[in-house]
């Protein structure tokens, strides 16, 4: 399992960096300043996409994840994976 964040089209790059720090995100965060990925993911960020091993989107969580536990619970529910 891989977890990657994509920071899309911030007014200032520091806005995304502050969000990452304030929310305790420790996984890799890619920056998309030109919003090229918006065509794939659409509007409504923040959005967390759960994509299975076959590349199928099995769930889309719109809005901020409130905790690491919420993320773990969603991974277990939608990807059927055990999270340490």
Please characterize this protein's 3D structure.
By secondary structure, the protein is of the alpha+beta class. It has one domain: Glutaredoxin (3-Layer(aba) Sandwich). It has three helices and four strands. The protein has a two-stranded parallel sheet. A two-stranded antiparallel ribbon has the order 3-4. Strand 1, helix 1 (13-22) and strand 2 (29-32) form a beta-alpha-beta unit. The longest helix has 12 residues, at 68-79. The radius of gyration is 13 Å and the shape is globular. The termini are close together. 2% of the residues are buried.
Keyphrases for this structure?
single chain, 84 residues, alpha+beta, Glutaredoxin, 4 strands, globular
Q: Could you give a short description of this structure?
A:
It is built from 3 helices and 4 strands.
SSE order and pairing:
Layout: E1 5-8, H1 13-22, E2 29-32, H2 38-41, E3 47-51, E4 57-62, H3 68-79
Parallel strand pairs: 1-2
Antiparallel strand pairs: 3-4
Strand order of the largest sheet: 1-2
Helix content: 25-40%
CATH domain topology? Glutaredoxin
Give the count of structural domains.
1
What is the approximate shape?
A: globular
**Biggest sheet descriptor:** 2 strands, parallel
User: Judging by the overall fold, what is the CATH architecture?
Assistant: 3-Layer(aba) Sandwich
How many DSSP-defined strands? 4
Order of helices and strands: EHEHEEH
Structural class by helix and strand composition: alpha+beta
Give me the Rg, rounded: 13 Å
Distance between the termini: 12 Å
């Amino acid at each position: 399992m891989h977890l990657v964040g994509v920071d899309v089209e911030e007014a200032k790059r520091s806005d995304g960096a502050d969000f990452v720090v304030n929310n305790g995100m420790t996984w890799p965060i890619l920056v998309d300043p030109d919003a090229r990925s918006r065509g794939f993911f659409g509007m409504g960020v923040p959005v967390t996409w759960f994509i299975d091993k076959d590349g199928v989107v099995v769930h889309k969580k719109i809005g901020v994840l409130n905790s690491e536990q919420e993320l773990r619970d969603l991974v277990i529910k939608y990807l059927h994976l055990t999270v340490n």
